# Entry
Amino acid sequence: MWLIIAEKDKTARRIAQILFRDFKRLNRYGVNYYFSPSNRAYVLGLKGHIVEVDFPPEYNDWRRTPLKSLLRAKFVWRVKEKNIVKLLVELAKEVERVTIATDYDREGELIGVEALKIIRKVNPNVKVDRVRFSAITPADIRRAFENPVAIDYNLAKSAEVRQKIDLIWGAVLTRLLSLSAGKVGKDFLSAGRVQSPTLRLIVEREKQIREFKSKKFWEIYVKVRGIEAKLDKRFESKEEAQKVLASIGDFAKVTKFEKKVVEENKPIPFNTTEFLKEASRFMSPDKAMRIAEELYMSGYISYPRTDNTVYPRTLNLRRLAEMFVGTDFDREAKIVLAGDMVPSKGRRETKDHPPIHPTAVASKEELSKDEWIIYELVVRRFLSTLAPKAIWEIRRVELSVNGLTFRASGKRLIERGWRSIYTYVQAEENVIPEFKIGETIKIEAKRIAEKKTKPPQRYTTGRLIKLMEKLGLGTKSTRHEIIKKLYSRKYVYGNPLKPTNTAFAVIEALKRNAELITLPDMTAKLEEDMDSIAEGKLDEKTVLLKSVRFLDKILSDINTDELGKSLREGIEEDRRKKLEKNSIGRCPKCGGMLVVKKFEKRFVGCTNYPKCDFTLPLPQKGRIYITSKVCEKHGLKKIKIRTKDGTWDLGCPYCNYLSWKEKKNVT
DNA sequence: GCAAGGTC
# Structure
């Protein structure tokens, strides 16, 4: 018997389909596998890593484990996919040959070796080989199986070292932060090779914004033929600008006028990063990814985890576009099919998966609202990459007024091209009239505009994912998870992302004591070391020892009291701010904070309860909104209630209560 | 209960 191991079920089925005519799907312990009686072969798909590295259980108690002991701890592997392992063990007993057909990359090599170790335990003498393919097409798969090679144990080892380094750094620093801050439990503080540099980007950007000093400046505009032209100089003082403005006469001479027709490139095919960036117009990257996975599993779109931005030649683009004729995208498909259909392409070309594209037609009715949003995005993006280019007419005019140069430019969309398909980006048109070089025209008006320099912008989730990719932080499959992690650790909130004071404190603490973990350099260096391990030039021990020594020194040097104090200050500041935000105002009885509470019924209560029993009633139905308007009499924030019938003003909850009491006394 | 990486 022969056993072929693939990285996931989908690939296993595909391999069985391509290699074996008579394959049957079987299922044991809820795990699919495929069997070909004539070839006496099984194909089993894993779920990526089926085991994970960890410390032995005796290190589980954070408070009782000295941090330095983690540096001496051995690593153990814990089974993550019990049912797969159970099936693997049973199949392994029957086979003489195993072929590892996991993904052709570093993690794939390790995933294969993980399975192999389990097989060898029950069948030490099994023959093993490895096939490498970078596309799951019949040609690629057949070629790979005709040329099996040996397992690259060094490559697998390098991935294993990556796991250990991530764990040891992550665990030591996470526990260090959490223990010093007294945050052990569900609200712990964390650090890691990818999350910490990402958080640092957000924190540093916020610092730049806080430190930014806006500067005023003045610009001069003249109006000619109904449009405004701007002087090619800005002034730092208003007086200076006014002086120049006063010197401007009534006429301008046209010194340059050009009209150009330019083509605007269409969007590039979706890889994961581009997809998530665009999807972040509608939802969080995490949710977008989850929905994309669902659409993939139901067969509507291709594999959503890819770095590739170039369609492979084997993909029948015309057939895919034709698929949408007569559907919700009929108009769009016809625009595409009427053109030359030369696809756009991005810079990155990989061979493992094609760019994300639709694989089947869906109708609005069969998908949920969010699924449709993502599906429509993928379809529109796909069709737009095959569509004609958009064509703009650009006009530029240059005017001379008393030796001063004024400029204006305009652009007008003449052929919508892909823009009529990819409707998420608005074309900003700005039309200016015709001018003739040499003509003199009347200045209709002139003015000074006061402007100011703007601080850098905060990162949106979409921009952050792109930046992470550029800096080599995380992978296509993990970036959205890292961002989600930053939210759930309460390091950031909102989109664009704002860091909390806790995040400031954590980054400051890490910068002072373990700056390496806050820099993308750590990932870059790790990549180098892993390459060296894969090439056999460096061994695991040397690499691990470097990290252990580094962390050992950090733990020896650190002043945990000081660290804890600064972390607690940040956390306390966030707690205070949050309370302030959620609070309705000061308690008139004791000076504590009034908040919305719920005990059987909801009501306004005091944070000093049970010492203070002040309460005010609230309506039991509808959503409560605490506005920023404050009652003059009681100093409490006014409240609005939104029900499905509309929004109504409750006003100050104290006034509301008093008037209710009065009414009751009258009747 | 810690990381990041596969996969669902």
Observations:
- Chain A has five domains: 2-46+81-151, 161-210+463-562, 216-262+394-415+424-452, 272-386, 584-666.
- The longest strand of chain A covers residues 251-264.
- The CA atoms of residues 301 and 358 of chain A lie 4 Å apart.
